Amino acid sequence: MDLPETLRKRLDDFSRNVLFEPSRSQPPSKDHDAILQRDKRVLSSLPLQMSLFFNMWFFPWWWICETVMLHLKYPALPDYYKFILVTILILMTLIEAIRLYLGYAGNLQEKVPELAGFWLLSILLQLPLILFQLFNESILVQPLERGVHIVLAVFLLSQALSGFVALRDMVRNTEDQFHLQQFN
User: 0.85 cut: is pTM over it?
Assistant: First the structure.
């Protein structure tokens, strides 16, 4: 549901005056107007940004819980599951750091390649790894592990959905800008 055009423009002008104008007493210069285009819409996704923020603070707790649980159940696991779980923990740690950086950069700076990389890492790597850890009973899933895996899986699903919507909007906006520049 979109806001009416007149209300959206008034809110946009108000937020630009309150948030971006350094001093209200001096009139804005031409350079200032060139930096802040009046008709440019902010395409960053607030739900995606909130989910990334909370995920950034949750991930260290997930990592600590996962490491402690792996240490406790390590003697009871078969050798191949020991190797698989240690490899998954290392991979998920590296992928999550890269994924969160790409999500922040792509969403806040409205960069399509970074946001697309974030979305692909979420869907193709992180989600299958966390679902493997969540639903494979052979790795002796503990209740604490199940809880933190469910929370991380919810973060990943919400980020995949809101990331897709944000990516679609940014691509459409970039396409519209390209068509407008082509005719000018």
Answer: no
